[in-house]
Amino acid sequence: MEAIIEFIDALDAAVWGVPMLVILLGAHVFLTFRTGFIQRKLGTGIRLSITKDPDAPGDISQFGALCTALSATIGTGNIVGVGTAILAGGPGAVFWMWLTGVFGIATKYSETFAAVKYRVKDHNGNMLGGAMYAWERAFKKDGVTPWWAKLGAVLFAGLAAIASFGIGAAVQSSAMTEVVTTNIPGIPTWACGIAIVILISLVVFGGVKIISRVCEKLVPLMAVLYTLGCLIILGVNWQFVWPALCAIVVGAFDPQSVFGGVLGSTIVVALQFGCARGLFSNESGLGSAPIVASAAATRNPARQALVSMTGTFWDTVVICLLTGLVLVSTMLANGDIVSGISAETITKGAELTSAAFAQIPVIGTPILVVGMILFAYSTILGWSYYGNRCITYLLGKRAIRPYQILYVVVAFLGAIGIGDVVWTVSDITNALMAVPNIIVVLLLSGLIARETKHYVYDGNLLERDTDPIPQYESK
Question: Who has the most CB within 10 Å: 284, 298, 303, 424?
Fold first, then answer.
């Protein structure tokens, strides 16, 4: 058994290694130029996210779809993941994480465009979409989908469904339990697990509309509370905010000059860990967010694609950067933290994050605890929907209830500490699902570029897509 676990760990490190980073970053840069640097339309996307699109086909509002997607991406990676990146790659890793978010905006736009363009309706008229439907519909000729396109669809849906159990259920419930039991001694892990199961079940079994309604209220609240908390901490550390920003920029190109070389080693390491954590945090290129974006009420693919790309901005460019500034400024203000890293008493991202937030009297630890719980819970809800839609594609609507039950069970197992293997396997599939998603987006990049020019740059965002949304005969 130990040998199997070691193999799984080695495979996990391999799939999230340099080749995967090159694929995702390469796609980010290519799609940035292919879409005419769509990032410059970020303001339009933010405006559209809070604008209703009356009489447009869809199940939930554009804002609801964005919040549901953000619920899945804004998770422990925005707090602990930033700490892990800094610990491994130094403060400069935050710079590369931020830059990854900037370029990832174009990929999030493109993959959402493809998903909405090729979405379908089920027998009840509910919208279904994602990379699997893009694969199946975009290359269909004479009513027949080529075997290789069907393979791409099945691979994406299968890998995403498996990944949902780890990134969505096991690791997030584990993080919630750890933060509660650490700060409130005496509470058994099984009690946390039962509480998490109840909280999840109240929402997950209600379907996409219930999940969307909860996320529409929860995500803005938790983001605002966490942002305000970080700003208060930065106010306390105001003398160290500018030096922290300088350390982040300088450390991206000269890691040894920051903290005397205690953190990070080379530019390559800072870049690798910064990009990896950034990609993991905002999920641009993984194809997850477009699944829920396909359910949005929108008159054409470009409108929802513009809304969805703002998710990467809020997730990485804003929240991850805020966390990075809080951690680095607190480390500059408190030399004991750097000494702890040097003495190897602080060896994990969670330990670094806890130590940094704990240095702020009264409010530091509560901000961390509340932020971790809310972020983890929202991620559980968001990924439950992704897995639901993928299982529906693979096995039909009859598989939805068994999937939901298994999802809740895995969340409980993660809470009591036996979900590590599930998480590692899911981390692997989380990376691998990006491959069929990136391939289909790149194959459709010409179409995306042409229609982006028509809708976005030629001023036709109010125009309705004339292509009919077909009904999909599910199993």
Answer: 284
